[in-house]
Amino acid sequence: NTPENIMFSKTVLNEKFGDRDLKIILVTNAFHMRRALMTAIKYFSSGYRFVTSPVIDTNTRADNWHTTEKGRARMEKELRSLVVSIKNKWAIDDIIDGYYLTNKNNK
Predict the structure, then answer these.
(1) Please, is 57 exposed, middle or buried when counting C-beta atoms within 10 Å of its C-beta (0-12, 13-18, 19+)?
(2) Which of 4, 51, 59, 77 could form a cystine bridge with 71, CB 3.0-4.6 A?
(3) What angle do CA 13, 18, 20 make, to 5 degrees?
(4) The pTM is what?
């Protein structure tokens, strides 16, 4: 799941680079990016900066996710996971807008 993946990634990065500030490219499906970024921000220290690189797949694009059973099921699962993540405090929803505002010009 997303929190476990983020925590594993953090462990690997800390072992390799120590406690240095890093810019990390976060790659996942476009429909999953918000939850992945919210979780990454929650578990990584403020010295990390994230650049998102969403992957567009054929079943969950903004213009077609609702047209197939597979697309609807994937979106429903992601929305349920988003709610669970916020309820369990694995991700913090109100941090996203501030994160983009304060970090959009990071190099």
Answers:
(1) middle
(2) 59
(3) 95
(4) 0.70
- Tokens encoding 53: 């690189």
Give me the half-sphere count of Cα atoms (radius 13 Å) on the Cβ side of residue 65: 17
Convert the pLDDT of each residue in 50-83 to its tens digit. 888 888 777 777 788 888 888 888 888 888 888 8
Provide the CB-side half-sphere exposure for 10 (13 A, CA): 18
Joined together, the tokens standing for residue 51 give 């650049």
Assign residue 82 a region (left: φ > 0; alpha: ψ between -120 and 50; beta: otherwise): alpha
Phi first, then psi, for residue 60 (nearest 5°) are -135, 40
